[in-house]
Amino acid sequence: MDMTALIADLVGIRLEQNDKIIQQKSRDFYWYSPVLKRQLDHVTGDLVASPRTEEELIRVLKACYAHDIPVTPRGTGTGNYGQAMPLSGGLVLSLADMNEIREISPGRVICGPGVICSDLDKATRAHSSQEMRMHPSTYHTATVGGFIAGGSGGVGSINWGGLRDFGNVIRLRVVTMEEEPQILELTGEDLHKVTHAYGTNGIITEVEMPLAPAYDWVDAIVGFDSFDDATLYANALARQDGILTKLITVVAAPCPFDYFKRHQKFLTEGQSVVLVMVAPHSHDAFKAFTARHSGEVVFDASMVEDLKGLPPVFELAWNHTTLRALRVDPAWTYLQSLYPFPNQIELAAKMERMFPGEMISHLEFVRFDGDITCFGLPLIRFTTEERLDEIVELHHANGCPVFNPHRFTLEEGGMKQTDEIQLAFKRQADPKGLLNPGKMIAWDDPDYDFGSGETWLFKGLKQAS
Amino acid sequence: MDMTALIADLVGIRLEQNDKIIQQKSRDFYWYSPVLKRQLDHVTGDLVASPRTEEELIRVLKACYAHDIPVTPRGTGTGNYGQAMPLSGGLVLSLADMNEIREISPGRVICGPGVICSDLDKATRAHSSQEMRMHPSTYHTATVGGFIAGGSGGVGSINWGGLRDFGNVIRLRVVTMEEEPQILELTGEDLHKVTHAYGTNGIITEVEMPLAPAYDWVDAIVGFDSFDDATLYANALARQDGILTKLITVVAAPCPFDYFKRHQKFLTEGQSVVLVMVAPHSHDAFKAFTARHSGEVVFDASMVEDLKGLPPVFELAWNHTTLRALRVDPAWTYLQSLYPFPNQIELAAKMERMFPGEMISHLEFVRFDGDITCFGLPLIRFTTEERLDEIVELHHANGCPVFNPHRFTLEEGGMKQTDEIQLAFKRQADPKGLLNPGKMIAWDDPDYDFGSGETWLFKGLKQAS
Questions:
Q1: pTM greater than 0.95
Q2: Does B241 touch chain A (CB under 8 A)?
Q3: Which of A425, B57, B391, B433 has its CA 20 to 30 A from that of B97?
Q4: Which residues does the UniProt record annotate as the domain FAD-binding PCMH-type (chains A, B) (predicted)?
């Protein structure tokens, strides 16, 4: 790779050439997975470019195209699947500086891909008491564009489903990786081409997202002596059509008491908990409903005088649950699974009992294809990669699909099949295959057998030197 | 009844003594039902009182208590079950003048019971772009208090379920009918005592309701050649978690073309339609989704230049569907039924085929106990009361509960069983049984057998003189 020539072409664009910083900007939270840690720990780009405008971005892409340099786009690198890691080196394309908020109107916002989620909400709240429909638990660090390209849902999915659902992204402006980059405006059916494609087939330069009303959500934690009771309550609460919540999370004992250190004084050892964000105008109904279910509200932010030092409850949920466990005990890793409706209660109970001492259950209730059900993000005590694969297989065998966070490809981390729409769009938008190489098996290895059960190996993975 | 003494006690309170006007104010839309029309056509009160404040109201109640005069509270009489009709005569208590809007804040509003729904929304929209979560199709005439006391849900129930659900009413201030009326503030679990109790056990003097964000909802009509296709599409649209709608209604042919006269130029004879209200920021997604389902958008208010003379689509839906059919052909009446999840599609298709020429299907998609399903408000061609009862029985026999709109009691129009909570509260709040007599069987006839299959006869029903 002729990086010197590339750099010469990029005069005036913000570049980073310090090796340590480049390495830092080549990483995400891949290290939650001991498997990805082993495979990707050495991965680093050769240069970071941070365009501030679409014109600068296009200059970068044209230059990389001309010099055949791989380009791995990223926001702030808060993913967990190695989404933003440059497997073949080359240019790390930071979109964090394209962070202009352009227009806020009822129900929608238009902004650059690099806006941090919490900054976006701050602006939309101030403008008209609105906020994003959903955000990752890395709300304060993740970019909107990175969330769309690499995420799937999060806090708010209990109301709105996932990013893949019609209506949760309104429009994306995308630049292709061709000799003459094209600028495309994607809406409706076409959005699927690039959402959750890890930036393998186009660079998002502007997003138009729907907004929901912003409320002063009340954080609450409800304690239960049994995981099953917590799950039943959480499921029933999620099915209360008139109680507006933004988060309903079940975390089994001993995780809450052992790992939610800052909330420990509110918690009882041995209790499983349900984390809830409830709208202030649903707070009364939430309390009445919880009392009916014999739930004990052990923490209610609206009743606690001094909240200083306490993180919001969504920072105990989604992937932050894993993070808090890992911080105390690095032997933990995790999975991402789905407990399909209508069997979520039975499946969650069954899986909870299947791996005593080896798994701590963690459920995130969501709307999924019109039904209330839950994802699982269980903590898994890591021993060997073989055992981890076995646990994944046991989930599949019991009817719980796993979106394997120990794989760095779109397919293995997702639906285990070629996404023909995204592949076809990559053929058009990235004919040289320079965008985020190694993340789309269908591109690199069209004959790969997804039923093989083998982990796919990316031949272009740059080896540690 | 000593009305003269009562009137003397009510000096300074707005009274109506003109017989014609009293009769007018003693009616609702009971005449949608030929059965209720026969039974109740002669019903009229003896006096109408319209207090403007809670103090005036309490004076009225105390005076009626002292003189043993029945009191039938009402808003504007837009119910269909005879909810607001004074079966034993006496005082008609109009709450329409208690229509102050007291406080609007994020997610909630506090107001008097007599505020008209559309007036409330006008104020909350102007204040902070908010609106009621749900409203009846009689939006422009119905009062908020009447909706709570006599309604169950409506436009918006696709997002929020029904009024009976936790969280859809925040607080009710209620005055009892005792020698010394008490003022109670009901929240949480206690709300059920008086919601949908037809004012039989207390008078609502203030309501606190949750608000949802107000959008400029786009009216659309999607046409299908078959009712089954329309139902499948409507159900699938309702299950799109990311597409924000406020109304999803299926009306089978020939109703739309024959009875939606003002929209007729957009409609095709023989087509069944789906009526949709969609948020502007979900409009793109709605169009993409509809195209995927081969639905033909035959009317899209955002594309029609001259909307003059066209009612909003919600005035083609819920009980307005019946009204439009009745206006053209008075031989129609209707039912209210539920197609329970997860069999709503099959049940709707089955019932549609069961009564050829005698029934036109009409489905209202809603959230119900956490699931997406639909109510039925089918048009029924009336022949005899026996046949009508037979049709009701055939619904029950096929697993579709009917909330019989041809009965004037709470129990027969609802769950066919005693509501012990409402009954217990009536014992406390209305010891003389003066509030809306004849509407709660459990009060008048504690030994009544709900399994008898007989229509209950209210002995206190004032006969035509």
A1: yes
A2: yes
A3: B433
A4: 40-214
